Amino acid sequence: MDKETVATISYLARLRFDEDNKEKITKDLENIIEFVDQLESADTSDIEPLANPLEKTAKTRSDEITAENRKETFLENAPDSNEDYFLVPRVVE
Asked: Global pTM?
């Protein structure tokens, strides 16, 4: 990894680095590439792919109505309503 490659990557990523940080960034990128190389060499042939990395399942519950229907109460408090809806004046002609 050279400074020209770091400059190209920073240009493509729209990042701006100080000259002091370019050497540190270069070393960090080299470490990242080495780590990825180590991951590629790991044998994963006997490992089943995961759908979720946490291996947890979603909790389920029965679909029951737990709240009471208070539609009539709300419609009684409205200035104007019909059987099912609030009635409001037309705003757009």
From this structure: 0.44
- pLDDT tens sequence across 6-53: 888 888 999 888 888 888 888 898 999 999 999 888 888 888 887 777
Are 17 and 28 a contacting pair, CB within 8 Å? no
Q: In the beta sheet, which residues pair with residue 86?
A: 81
12 alpha-carbon distance from chain centroid: 23
**How far is it, in rounded angstroms, from Cα 14 to Cα 8?**
10
Q: What domains appear along the chain, each with residue ranges and CATH number?
A: 3-40 (1.10.20)
For residues 65-92, b (16+ Cβ closer than 10 Å) or e, as one string? eeeeeeeeeebeeeeebeeeeeeeeeee
* 22, 51, 60 from 43: Cα distances, Å: 34, 19, 36
| Cα-based distances in Å from 41 to 35, 36, 37, 80 | 10, 9, 7, 71
